[in-house]
Amino acid sequence: MTPRRDVYHPTDYQPPQGSWASSEPNRKTMLANRHRDTGPELRVRRAVHAMGLRYRVATRPLKAVGRSADLVFTRARVAVFVDGCFWHGCPDHFSLPSTNTDYWTTKIEGNALRDRETDHLLDDAGWTVVRIWEHELALEAATQIAGSVRERLAALKPRGAADRTRLDEAMGGG
Ligand SMILES: [Zn+2]
């Protein structure tokens, strides 16, 4: 089964000024992209915040899974990852560096495998995983995230219904 990706690819994408996609990738920008508060992630966070949604930043949705999501909606159980085009092997923008190709192939494939594993673990635990590429427009990404969060919140059982279910179980009913 193909892991759910929830990825949106705008066709009118222009790489942001100074991003690795607008110039020759080099080690320095790659390393800069590893940092948490990267431009793309900040833009997505701001756009989601402006929509009135609140979230936790860079926290583990599941204690047992040693991977932090970039935005975590605890009650809605939505975990958002903003994936760098280089580090996560974006199909549109990743290109293998011309040196140390074996190293980079192993590295990037390993990252992608780990991403899929993280998706499955979270999905199994009842979380919705939303993955955003760093090249996506922040507003489009935020709209997608807000949609997932609202969908999950709407599906939450009202408290009264949950109490009735517990009572039914206690009474031996269905
Ligand atoms: Zn990309």
pLDDT < 50 stretches: 1-26
Q: What does the largest sheet look like?
A: 4 strands, mixed
Distinct ligands: zinc ion
What is the average per-residue confidence, as pLDDT, rounded to a whole number? 80
Report helical residue fraction.
Answer: 40-55%
CATH superfamily: VSR Endonuclease
Quaternary? single chain
Helix/strand/pairing category: alpha+beta
User: What's the number of structural domains?
Assistant: 1
Q: Total strand count, please?
A: 4
> Within the largest sheet, what's the order of strands?
1-2-3-4
Shape, per Cα inertia axes? globular
Share of β-strand residues? 5-15%
Q: What is the CATH fold-level name?
A: Endonuclease, Chain A
Number of helices: 5
SSE layout and pairing:
Blueprint: H1 27-32, H2 39-50, E1 56-59, E2 69-73, E3 78-83, H3 101-124, E4 128-133, H4 138-155, H5 159-170
Parallel strand pairs: 3-4
Antiparallel strand pairs: 1-2, 2-3
The structure holds zinc ion.
Could you please describe the fold and organization of this structure?
The chain has 174 residues and is of the alpha+beta class. It has a single domain, classed as VSR Endonuclease (Endonuclease, Chain A, 3-Layer(aba) Sandwich). Helices cover 41% and strands 12% of the residues. The protein has 5 helices and 4 strands. A 4-stranded mixed sheet has the order 1-2-3-4, sandwiched between helices. Strand 3, helix 3 and strand 4 form a beta-alpha-beta unit. The protein is globular. The structure holds zinc ion.
